[in-house]
Amino acid sequence: GLLGQNLGAINYTYASGSVSGNSYAGGLVGQNLGAINFSYASGSVTASSNFGALVGQQSGSVTSSAGKTAA
Question: What is residue 69's predicted lDDT score, i.e. its pLDDT?
Answer without folding.
Answer: 82
